[in-house]
Inverse folding.
């Protein structure tokens, strides 16, 4: 490495360390997941939130919420449910991370709906984006029972479906994996999307993927007509990669089918996570004004 470049990088790291030592204003982010008993399950998400909090001059405080505790029914006491919802309400922002399996999905859907209705900044990742779409279809389109075919193959409204190129019979090695191009598009009204502004490009980005299910392309027109904008799509503009609500309706409501946490760095935080923490700490408007 060039000695001058090495010295510059070292100065950046020393400055970062000083910045971390000086953090004293908290930002509370709730992680609503399925594996909250083992925080290492979400290690990349935690790191991306920490990187973003540092960039926002905030001290990250995590609130762990077991998604199934948000649900009503057997197996969850009233005390458990109240404590889980209290954390969601206390948080400045919420992340619904990726996952597999049916347990806790209805709790995540309830959480997405509450955040949407109450203006709570929310970032959904992979399954997190999918539950945002399910909730929106149920609440805004009136599609009772809207679901993913992963959880209910008989749903009358399959808004999330198995990808057509994936073999259901032979699950090994069938995921859509690795870096894929996401084209950043204007929203349904023709305005530049929040995702595009956070990424600082109107073209597209490479992000890493790990999923078998996707938003049903046949349902996209209805969802967009009801106000949920799909502003990131694959290179053929057929596969939904990013959804968001306009900022006139919500301060920060964004879902990503990919895993943006995998490319976060202490000096360059993941743009979707950075946007969440900016919104959660009340700094997003100022950041957007400074980064037109």
């Amino acid at each position: 490495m060039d000695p001058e470049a090495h010295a510059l990088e070292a100065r950046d790291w020393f400055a970062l360390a000083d910045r971390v030592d000086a953090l004293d204003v908290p930002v509370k982010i709730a992680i609503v997941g399925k594996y909250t008993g083992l925080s290492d399950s979400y290690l990349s998400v935690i790191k991306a939130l920490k990187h973003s909090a540092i960039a926002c001059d905030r001290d990250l405080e995590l609130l762990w919420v077991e998604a199934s505790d948000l649900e009503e029914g057997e197996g969850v006491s009233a005390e458990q449910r109240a404590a889980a919802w209290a954390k969601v309400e206390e948080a400045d922002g919420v992340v619904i991370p990726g996952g597999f399996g049916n347990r806790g999905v209805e709790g995540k859907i309830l959480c997405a709906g509450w955040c949407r209705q109450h203006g709570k900044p929310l970032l959904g990742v992979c399954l997190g984006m999918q539950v945002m779409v399910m909730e929106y279809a149920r609440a805004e389109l009136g599609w009772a029972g809207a679901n993913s075919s992963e959880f209910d193959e008989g749903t009358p409204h399959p808004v999330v479906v198995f990808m057509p190129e994936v073999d259901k019979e032979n699950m090994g090695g069938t995921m859509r994996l690795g870096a894929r191009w996401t084209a950043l598009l204007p929203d349904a009204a023709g305005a530049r999307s929040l995702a595009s502004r956070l990424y600082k490009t109107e073209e597209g980005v490479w992000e890493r993927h790990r999923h078998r299910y996707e938003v049903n392309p046949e349902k996209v027109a209805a969802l967009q007509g009801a106000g949920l904008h799909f502003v990131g799509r694959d290179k053929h503009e057929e596969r939904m990669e990013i959804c968001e609500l306009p900022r006139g309706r919500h301060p920060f409501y964004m879902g990503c089918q990919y895993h943006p946490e995998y490319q976060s760095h202490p000096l360059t935080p993941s743009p979707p996570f950075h946007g969440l923490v900016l919104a959660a700490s009340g700094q997003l408007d100022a950041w957007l004004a400074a980064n037109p």
User: Anything to note?
Assistant: The longest strand covers residues 176-184.
